[in-house]
Amino acid sequence: MSIVTLISFIICILIIASSFRSGIDIFSPGRIFFIVWSLAIGLTDLKLSSLQHQWALEVWIKILIGPFAFILGTLLIYTLNLDTKIYSLHYLRKEKNYYKINNEKLYRTVVFLFFLFLFGYLIIYLKTGNVPLFSSNPGKTRSEFTMFGIGLFLHNVLLIVFFTSVYYLVEKNNLLRRRILILCSTFSTILYGITLQRYQIFITIFLVIVLLYYTTYKVKFRFVFIFIVILVTFFFLVSSFRAGEIIIMVLYKMSKMKISPDYAIFTEPYMYIVMNLENYARSIAKTEFYTYGYYTFDFITAISGLKHWISGYLNLKDTPFLISSFNTYSAFWTFYRDFGLLGIFFIPFGGGILFSSLYYSLRRNPTVLKIGIYGMFHFAIIFSFFNSIIGFLWFVYNLTVIILVFAYIKNDKSLCNN
Q: Residue 297's CB: how many other CB atoms inside 10 A?
């Protein structure tokens, strides 16, 4: 075990252990980011696969610039707010005066979002003639189960479940409407699940956890930690069961693992984490030109319809320099590919400042809107080891709808208005 791995694991364990203390906000800006990145770096430096390689000092520096810039941004805001009065977690969970939500408008909004989801689903089904789970070629059908513009409505599953959870917080009496919204959430989740897409399910679960954490006493770090462990374990067990023993061994051989075949089942989760940084490290050394915002601001080219035209005209390859079937690079690759060293410093640094500022705004003047936005960005930060989702059109769509919905359902006159 290298010194880098040892230090990374120690940092990860210490932060996890400290999170069990009473009164600690586990979703504070840098805590989970530190856990994720110390774990990712520690696992990557184990070099358990022959597909991995030793990094030059220059590559190490470039890889660490992004995470350190983000932490620097969060520390700057933390320092500026040392004497700032913020509400305790107990206040956020006990006092409900900051909700100010019109229940009637909220109910109508969720129903409307649900019917938009059904409309988009039906149109895409009529176009493709099948759904991925029941297709003879699920992988191909999954990639084709979309449509420009209409496909965004499939991402309403996040909005439906999230706003249903908000409705449950503010409406305790109307059992019929609560049950109707639960049916909408359940049905939309099942329909989305059979498209074999998982990302929206993960972010939906996370967003609800963040909402409950800041508004109730039901979610503690122990619960979050155990839930994440169970979820990740279940995810990889299902993948392993679906693949079968032969496929697991094929992946083990293709990944050129250095560990005993007895532990081949750990190949996929290990490679799923470490190859992001390996691909990033390999690409850093081979990048010859920058794309100046094409990938960072993906949603602009996507919504304008110019994305594929620009990509074809410039002959851009979305996943260059790969040496395996694992084709993600971490969020910082997006910024480096677009803007080089300036990108991997200033964008994460600015992100740390904005994210921490949002956190302190939430703790000073809490609203459910801020909790929703904070949860969205927190998910993006957690998965920064995997990809940059902030620039994706579906992320911007969900974020925009959350802001617009809260503007519509806001009720300044009373706590609840039926």
A: 14
> Rounded to 10 degrees, what is the CA torsion of 373, 417, 158, 194?
170
Instruction: Pick the range with the lowest mean pLDDT from 32-41, 313-322, 376-385.
Output: 313-322
Look at residue 276 in the predicted model and tell me its pLDDT.
92
What is the C-alpha separation between 222 and 26, in angstroms, rounded? 10
pLDDT over 60 at 296, yes or no: yes
Two tokens, residue 294: 């094409």
SS3 letters across the chain:
CCHHHHHHHHHHHHHHHHCCCCCCCCCCCCHHHHHHHHHHHHHHCCCCECCCCCCCHHHHHHHHHHHHHHHHHHHHHHHHCCCCCCCCHHHHHHCCCCCCECHHHHHHHHHHHHHHHHHHHHHHHHHHCCCHHHCCCHHHHHHHCCCCCHHHHHHHHHHHHHHHHHHHHHCCCCHHHHHHHHHHHHHHHHHHHCCCCCHHHHHHHHHHHHHHHHHCCCCCHHHHHHHHHHHHHHHHHHHHHHHHHHHHHHHHHHCCECCCHHHHHHHHHHHHHHHHHHHHHHHHHHCCCCCCCCCCCHHHHHHHCCHHHHHHHHCCCCCCCCCCCCCCCCHHHHHHHHHHHHHHHHHHHHHHHHHHHHHHHHHHCCCHHHHHHHHHHHHHHHHHHCCCCCCCHHHHHHHHHHHHHHHHHECCCCCECC
Digit-coded pLDDT (tens) for 349-376 = 999 999 999 999 999 999 999 999 999 9
pTM of the complete model beyond 0.85:
yes
Q: What is the pLDDT of residue 416?
A: 41
Please report the sign of the dihedral spanned by the C-alpha atoms of residue 406, residue 411, residue 416, residue 418: negative
Min mean pLDDT across 40-44, 124-128, 241-245 is at 241-245
**Tokens read off for 298:** 């993906």
The distance from CA 298 to its chain's CA centroid, rounded to whole angstroms, is 16
Q: Do residues 240 and 265 make contact, with C-beta atoms less than 8 angstroms apart?
A: yes
